[in-house]
Amino acid sequence: MSADELVADLRGGSVVDEPGTAGPAVRRARAWLTRALEPGSVPAWRFVERVGPVEAVAALRAGTAPPRVQAVAGARVAEDASLDDLRRAERCGARLVVPEDDEWPTSALHCLTVASSALPDDHRLDRTLTPVPPLGLWVRGDGALADVVDRSVALVGSRAATAYGEHVTGELAHGLGERGWTTVSGGAFGIDAAAHRGALAAGAPTVAVLACGVDRAYPASHSALFSRLLDGGLLVSEWPPGCAPLRHRFLVRNRLIAALTRGTVVVEAAARSGALATAHRARDLGRALMVVPGPVTSAMSVGCHELLRDEERGARLVTTAAQVVEQVGSLGADLAAPPARPASPRDELSDVARRVLDACPVRTGVSPERLAAVAGCDVLDVLRVLPALELADLVQWTGTGWRLHPPPKTGTGASR
């Protein structure tokens, strides 16, 4: 189709299909833009916001868009795979969600709009770092995107995860799922996969934000995982179906993982890790940043510990799902309970009772007068606390004096 035919088709289509749903012209225009413009360009996003998606396509096809925007599209302006992309998405059960839809996660992505407002209108900015809102999101799965990510937490970390990291991630994701929270990650090996599996084990939705088309399983060995994930969860990408997982796209998509969620938890990260980029994006966007500590001898936890040492980042140490929810949940309503500790009969003892108990010998019983001398108190005080200590099985009368109650025998050998 020529440039004139494409533009005429877009301008002749309806802009609004029904309340809360973008019309075919807008959806096709944004489908074209998601392929023509690589995500993360400040001037391109501002141009589309200013003139609208249909007129942006017309200007790019005619070569009349601002030079900075035209440079982002490059040779792609002559191509049109928009209808093919929409049909390909439909065949795999996906759809293009655009800002004109009610399903668009407006509240979650508003932080990107605010962050990008302070950026210069320069196409030379590093796209992997710029917090620019997406022009559209290709979504595969039945759940409404805005609803699924409304109460969500990102769990990210190293692909070369240790058994410790995978175990902790699975426990966190499972605990979050039991509490009604969605887990968001990147669908990769290691921590990402453990996060998705932990959520699935709890019967909770989980979202994988991909750096390729939603019709592709990358890595290929995760095709079964992605199939399970679609039962209540979502696959999300800024790139149209069929797009390859190019290296830079993993860094570009990190801002989406950070923006779509209320907070990001870094479970394991080496000194150089893509998970650290997500952590920085989360903090820059005003999201909660949480870190799981690891063994100080583990290279896979060096990045985590550096985040905790960076006071300006304000990362919070978390070890349980309850502590994560405390950071991202409702103020005063989602507080984590203090860690339980084993109860001991000694916990409720008075100061005098503790001193008398400490004065008791292990083997030979002694008189109350001797206990009073060692404990530094009156004999009457000793006689007052001894009955309570005996009832608690802490001390024992031997017939000649008082001693500590012997511990229960735990041996398994039978008497002969």
Automatic annotation (TrEMBL):
<feature type="domain" description="Smf/DprA SLOG">
    <location>
        <begin position="128"/>
        <end position="328"/>
    </location>
</feature>
<dbReference type="InterPro" id="IPR003488">
    <property type="entry name" value="DprA"/>
</dbReference>
<dbReference type="GO" id="GO:0009294">
    <property type="term" value="P:DNA-mediated transformation"/>
</dbReference>
<dbReference type="Pfam" id="PF02481">
    <property type="entry name" value="DNA_processg_A"/>
</dbReference>
<protein>
    <submittedName>
        <fullName>DNA processing protein</fullName>
    </submittedName>
</protein>
<dbReference type="InterPro" id="IPR057666">
    <property type="entry name" value="DrpA_SLOG"/>
</dbReference>
<comment type="similarity">
    <text>Belongs to the DprA/Smf family.</text>
</comment>
